[in-house]
Specification:
The chain has 490 residues and is mainly alpha-helical. The protein is built from 17 helices and no strands. Helix content is 80%, strand content 0%. The C terminus is likely disordered.
Length: 490
């Protein structure tokens, strides 16, 4: 299960890291490249609830195996794609296959292990997934550089073969539910998730009407899904599960660490590349030890749950996330990379610590016949929150940067267009202003220096604002996860 979880997490990174080479080979536009980079995630989010429902009805092991078969077939199809249209079909199909692997792996762990061993099993599953995912993009990158881009896309199908063999040999089948498949509900939530997540992805480029329309349509479809589920006799997702305070606390914590994981990556990249002028590859290098430590933290969190309880461990993980955000407030241009690396590591560790009790709480809140669906809720909410993070972080950060920049330009005699030209030239672009409007070298250096300071100020302010997100989640968890009091003697 951990191996399956790992390749669903690592594969999108593998494609993104090698997308430039794929684009040169198949000759497609930048817009198509952007679409390809997010396509697998979109179809995964669209199919994950349906995958969970099918797992409950047809057997989790069987549907998980089908997900592995699909990962093999569509992974190989992508590797041999002669044209970008074939690659698009392959990536879309791979996302659907991943929905079965990711959506059912946790549900199988929950169904197979007894309650007393469940927390440790989930912790081992998450720890293995984190550890195994770390090296896959690096291995794929090495293959691409030595044998061509097609070989990097074969990493996922090879791992899917190994996962399938282990599953067929060692994983028992689970109990099947006798409910009917809620096709309208599954269709509504699929369309809602695609619309919201794609809209959030488009929002990363700035506030625009198209992205807002997509998000609005997605939210409307989400409301329609809830109304349908409340009135249909055989819902795909029983809405009564959301009446559980424990479930809602875990869902909030999961959304928080995914939101900060996606948004934090944007801040880390801005700081390294824009403020320090470092290569983007440095962030990848820092993430390797961070993810390895996070995998160990997930295992330790499982043991801690048994000793200290779910609430204490969940709140502790959220506190680590708050510290990771707060650390960015003190960064400057000369902060040692090691200190910055600690902040990156804390972001990964906090998410790993949160994820273990979050998973155990959510799965223990689900009746056995809904294990697959409830397990699928976790990645569905996670994908939406992870997409919201970069969009909101970038939007708030850019707004703060522009406000600070406009304030500094007041009274300087330099227009916004001249400042944009100076920054464009400083980053290797060509000026667009007329010759008489071009700044002299001293003014251009001042603009570049002040822009760097403005970006640093924006990063500090965004970090301070976002530190409040895990703090709020901590309060929610502390209130909703109150320990049950023993009944008083009569």
């Amino acid at each position: 299960m951990g191996l399956g979880y790992s390749f669903t997490a690592a594969d999108p990174t593998t494609l993104s890291a090698n997308l430039a080479e794929v684009r040169r080979a198949l000759d497609f536009t930048p817009a198509t490249a952007s679409f390809l980079a997010s396509l697998c995630t979109l179809t995964l989010a669209a199919a994950v609830l349906g995958a969970g429902a099918l797992g409950d009805l047809a057997g989790m092991k069987r549907m998980f195996a089908i997900g592995c078969y699909g990962s093999i077939a569509f992974g190989v199809l992508g590797a041999v794609a002669p044209h970008v249209s074939v690659l698009i079909v392959a990536r879309a199909g791979l996302g659907v296959a991943f929905a079965f692997v990711l959506g059912l792996s946790l549900a199988i762990i929950n169904a197979v292990f007894p309650p007393g061993r469940r927390a440790a099993a989930i912790a081992a599953y998450l720890g293995a997934g984190h550890a195994l995912a770390v090296f896959q993009p690096a291995v794929a990158g090495w293959l691409a550089s030595h044998f061509g881009w097609r070989t990097c896309l074969l990493v996922t199908p090879v791992l899917a073969v190994a996962t399938l063999v282990i599953t067929l040999r060692y994983v028992p089948e689970t109990v099947r539910d006798q409910r009917k498949l809620d096709l309208p509900g599954i269709g509504l939530i699929a369309a809602a998730l695609i619309s919201v997540i794609y809209g959030l992805t488009e929002l990363q480029g700035g506030l625009n009407l198209g992205a807002l329309v997509l998000i609005g349509v997605g939210l409307a479809l989400g409301v329609a899904f809830v109304r349908w589920e409340l009135h249909t006799p055989a819902p795909a997702l029983d809405m009564r599960i959301f009446s559980s305070g424990r479930f809602n606390a875990a869902l909030t914590a999961g959304a928080t660490f995914n939101f900060l994981g996606g948004g934090g990556t944007i801040l880390f990249a801005y700081y390294l590349v824009t403020i320090r002028g470092e290569s983007p590859e440095l962030l990848g290098l820092l993430l390797v030890p961070a993810m390895l430590i996070a995998s160990a933290a997930a295992v330790v969190a499982g043991r801690a749950v048994s000793r200290f309880g779910e609430r204490a461990v969940l709140v502790f993980g959220l506190a680590i996330l708050a510290v990771s955000m707060a650390m960015l407030v003190v960064l400057d241009q000369n902060t040692p990379v090691a200190v910055f690396g600690i902040g990156v590591a804390l972001n990964a560790i906090g998410g790993a610590v949160v994820q273990t009790p979050q998973s155990t709480i959510m799965m223990s809140s689900a009746p056995p016949e809904l294990g697959g669906v409830v397990s699928a809720v976790k990645p569905a909410v996670g994908q939406a929150a992870y997409s919201l993070g970069p969009a909101l972080f970038a939007l708030v950060g850019t707004t703060l940067f522009l406000q600070d920049g406009r304030r500094k330009l007041e009274g300087s005699g330099i227009s916004e267009e001249q400042a944009r030209d100076a920054l464009r030239v400083a980053h290797g672009g060509a000026p667009t202003a007329a010759g008489s409007e071009v700044l002299d070298p001293e003014q251009a250096r001042w603009v570049v220096s002040e822009a760097t300071d403005s970006w640093l100020t924006a990063i500090h302010e965004v970090s301070l604002i976002m530190t409040g997100v895990p703090l709020v989640a901590m309060v929610v968890a502390w209130i909703l996860l109150r320990p049950n009091r023993a009944a008083a003697p009569s």
